[in-house]
Amino acid sequence: MQKEIIIAGFGGQGVLFAGQVLAYSAMDNGKDVTWIPSYGPEMRGGTANCTVVIADHEIGSPLVKNPPLAIALNLPSFDRYEELLATGGTLIVNQSMVDRAAQRNDIHVIMVPCNEIAEEIGDRKLTNMVAVGALLSALPEVKIEDVEKALEGHLPARHKHLLPKNYEALKRGYEHAQKEWDKIPA
Amino acid sequence: MPKELWKGNEAIAEAAVRAGLEAYFGYPITPQTEILEYLSRRMPELGRAFVQAESELGAINMVYGAACTGVRVMSTSSSPGVSLMMEGLSYIAGTEIPAVLVNVMRGGPGLGNIAPAQSDYNQAVRGGGHGDYPRIVLAPASIQEAIDLMGLSFDLAEKYRMIAMMILDGSVGQMMEPAEMPEMMEVKRKDFDWATNGAMNRERRLLTSIYLNPLDEEKTNLRMLKRWKEVQTNEVRYKEYFLDDAKYVVIGFGTAGRVALSAVREARAQGIKVGLLRPITVSPFPYEALEQLIPQAEAFLVTEMNMGQMLDDVLLTVRGRVPVEFYGRPGGVVPFHNEILDEIQRLVSGPLAVQTDPRESWLTRMTA
Predict the structure, then answer these.
(1) Does B329 contact chain A (CB < 8 Å)?
(2) What is the pTM of this model?
(3) B133 and B150 co-located in one domain
(4) Residues B223 and B105 in one domain
(5) Burial class for B142, CB neighbours closer than 10 Å (0-12, 13-18, 19+)
(6) N or C: which end of chain B has fewer CB within 10 A?
């Protein structure tokens, strides 16, 4: 088993942390995992992305050209990864930040209003966790409980009081995505 | 110890600390600054020496001085910074003292960029500094390997009174992987019979790289070569993947090696008998392991994030007996595994000829 995931958005949307949470979840489950950020001058005020690879064997390349899974938290990321996604793959899109529908019909595009859901829970910063929750609907190798445990185990102590809201964000994202999947004809 | 998620640069720093690093001298440069940053906090915490020098020249000469006392000392930098250190490195080599240097390589030449590259292979392996000196060069492909090789670097440097360099590219420095740290080693100063650590109640010792009489310098050069022969006999390290029945062999180190692993796995799934040889010590180079593969190999594919530097070591070994092909991405570009898979498929569909310089046909394909 090997799954590659790219998470992309603006710097500040919690893209890198979302990837780390997935990496911790996979590691705590005994999987091999790599997390690699895009690094460089383009990160300042621009787009950020990271690639997470989860496998049950020694991981080769930590980067992937055509990922089967991706999260796009903003429009530039939607444009880029809708084009790059592997055929049959799943793209989770933050609907709150895009103004167009999907163009490809050989991939699954799951629209989730991450900002609105995060705001309903009471913290805009939870956008990334809503998206991670939605991603889990297409990543059966990682369970929602695994991510909860990873958050509990690796979130800095000063942020521990935010755990319940993070759990809620994961759950709401997952549930919204499930509803979107139900709309897709089998 | 349980596995933790470590960032490459920080893992290297902590591994050095646990191996008994007593003094660190460095200067910031992307993509290795996290090593310096981590140690600026960690070393004082342990009462050990950390100095951010005024430049890379300052840093390497501080390393030189500390190394003369026989303590575990290192510096880290990235390509342009390492170039600045080359004079000092040659002096350290000429003085026959142990020192450890990490180069988190980036795109070049010149100021280049901060993206991952492997273009300092020749500088690390063939010399870089002036004079005729051998050096040990280790090339980790993962964070666990970087941790393990960090400790080994100090052991090897001391055992052979030689520079041990670790070369990795920016992506290993920046990525995170689960890895296990070794236990914290107690700092034990070894009683080296060459160390200039205070001559109270004993004969004075002299450490120098000056041999004004050429015959003395020649003797020193030959002594270093003799020591190098021991390194070549004892310290070659590499990893083999799917080589048992392989008719095609990919060779790559560091990140290029692990990207090749993904390509080899996919080619295997398509029924292609291909394997991977990943050198871990690029100096001493695993010539013998490669030699053993020549009878079974129909062709070799060398893949690097440069314009073909380790390629020369492969060509030296193969010497025209089997076709050698090359695929590189220079300038700070990391290849995707699809590219290497395409190359493997090209090898299989043949026909291939033995070429004097595989870079020529590669260049033609790259610029077509």
Answers:
(1) no
(2) 0.95
(3) yes
(4) yes
(5) buried
(6) C
Domain that holds residue A127: 2-183
Q: What is the rounded average pLDDT of the residues B250-254? A: 98
Q: Which residues contact B365 (CB under 8 A, 6 or more apart)?
A: none
Q: How far apart are CA B368 and CA B353, in angstroms?
A: 20
Closest CA relative to residue B30, chosen from B142, B170, B166: B170
Cβ–Cβ below 8 Å for B5 and A23: yes
The C-alpha of A48 sits at a distance from chain B's nearest C-alpha, in angstroms, of: 14
Q: Taking 70 as the threshold, does the pLDDT of residue B218 lie above it?
A: yes
What's the pLDDT at B143? 98
Structural domain range at position B24: 4-234
Structure tokens at B304: 């690097």
B238: part of which helix (H) or strand (E)? strand B238-241
Q: Residue A34: which of B175, B265, B336 has the nearest Cβ?
A: B175
Q: Using one digit for the tens of pLDDT, what is the confidence trace for A40-82?
A: 655 556 788 999 999 999 999 999 999 999 999 999 999 999 9
3-state secondary structure of B177: strand
pLDDT in tens, B92-143: 999 999 999 999 999 999 999 999 999 999 999 998 899 999 999 999 999 9
Nearest chain B Cα distance for residue A127, angstroms: 23
Query: Taking CB atoms and an 8 Å cutoff, what residues of chain B touch A58?
Result: 261
CB A163 within 8 A of CB A23: no
**Could you give the percent of chain B with pLDDT greater than 90?**
95
Of the residues B217, B234, B251, the one at which a domain ends: B234
Interface test with A, best of B5, B143, B145 (most A CBs within 10 A): B5
Residue contact B5–A58, C-beta within 8 A: no
Longest dimension (CA), chain A: 45
The residues pairing with B116 across neighbouring beta strands, listed in sequence order, are B106
Residue A164: CATH number of its domain: 3.40.920.10
- Domain count within chain A: 1
Distances (CA, A) of B217 to B127, B208, B211, B212, B213: 18, 11, 5, 7, 7
Is residue B195 domain-shared with residue B323, that is, in the same domain? no
The tens digit of pLDDT for each residue in A20-32 reads 999 999 999 999 9
DSSP string, A107-155: SEEEEE-HHHHHHHHT-GGGHHHHHHHHHHTT-TTS-HHHHHHHHHHHS
Give CA separation, A32 vs A53, B167, B275, in Å. Answer: 8, 23, 21
Residues B303 and B200 in one domain: no
For residues B301 and B211, membership in a common domain is answered with no
Query: For residues B155-188, b (16+ Cβ closer than 10 Å) or e, as one string?
Result: ebbbbbbbbbbbbbbbbbbbbbbbbebeeeeeee
- Average pLDDT of the residues in A2-23: 95
| Alpha carbons B43 and B51: distance in angstroms, whole number | 10
What separation, in Å, do the N-terminal and C-terminal C-alpha atoms of chain A show?
24
Domain final residue pick, B208, B234, B260: B234
Amino acid identity of residue B208, one-letter, is T
Instruction: Report the pLDDT averaged over residues B23-37.
Output: 97
Q: Which two tokens stand for residue A29?
A: 């489950």
pLDDT for B318 beyond 70: yes
Question: Residue A60's Cα: distance from chain center in Å?
Answer: 21
